[in-house]
Amino acid sequence: MTSPIDWRAAAARAASVVPAGPPVDRTGAAALVASLRRAAAQAPPLVAGVTGLHEASAAAGDRPPLVVDRARWAAAATETFASLTDGVLPPPRLPGAARVAGEQLGVVLALLGTRVLGQFDPYAQGRPDGTGAGRLLLVAPNILTVQRQLDADPTDFHLWVCLHEQTHAVQFAAAPWLADHLRAALARVMEPVDGDADGEDAPAPVARPARRAVRGRAGAVSAVPGVLESVLEPPQREALADAVAVMSLLEGHADVVMDEVGPTAIPSVARIRAGFEKRRDERTWASVLVRRLLGMDAKLAQYRTGAAFVRGVLGAVGHEGLNAVWAGPERLPTADEIADPAAWVARVHG
């Protein structure tokens, strides 16, 4: 089935408009890349020390990171989106619509590409023997930008960033079913509801309001839960709420782990966290506009809601008890439980 989004056009447009990043000479760039690779290797054992997920951490440490520029991150993001939406979105209905959608998405990715520090992509192909699925991307220009803004110690800051992203790698290694679970959740958000028949026979039908939203935006994919909720029927809203709960868990868990590693490994961790939280809360008119456009306020809420859930569970049953969440989809917190950790503990641990 033809995709409603021209992914190559999206990657090309992002690469053509995203700024290169802060100035750095060849020696400085080489040192930055080397430091990030060291930090990525150091992070998994530290994650294991906090979480007790030793086997999963070893698997995460077996993947070399990709240190990329902003354009390469945008290209990787299109690959992930293409994988996630394969067979889910309806085909384009107008000539050139996929190209237009790709161009629009490319502009959004260019904006995001100036802000993302790192990303673990669980959908990247592994080695030919079937092992090592997933990849860690570290966006060097953005890490350098924030490092300079915070006046952070480079070694400490690089390890702090890698702790967050490698915690995601550990999560997916501990729960090999999780990537497919999230892919299925997206499909449920976009599947038809009872009585959704408007005379169209699309190979991969989606809910009527979501279908209209896709057409109205020339196929662009929105990352803003509030926007999605406004065009979804109740069954899809429930599926979206559960998916957001899972994402909140993943982000909050990573935030808690990176802070629990503590000053023994990262002497300036308190200063970095304080500076980073201040940066997250910045309220200039430009930052508010960009964050609302890209749905980043919703993302920040995920970090904080998820972190509160994780801390609540840890207070009751510790990391060993929290690790039950990786045993299977039925152990994941629901949309109600992510705001009520005691309810999850009662259901899972009795």
TrEMBL record:
| Source species of the chain | Litorihabitans aurantiacus
Give the matching NCBIfam families.
Answer: DUF2342_F420 (TIGR03883), putative hydrolase (TIGR03624)
Concerning Gene3D superfamilies, the annotation shows: Zincin-like metallopeptidase, N-terminal domain (1.20.150.30)
User: One Pfam family of this protein, by short name?
Assistant: Zincin_2
List the InterPro entries. CHP03883_F420-assoc, Zinicin_2, Zinicin_2_N
For this entry, the protein name equals Hydrolase
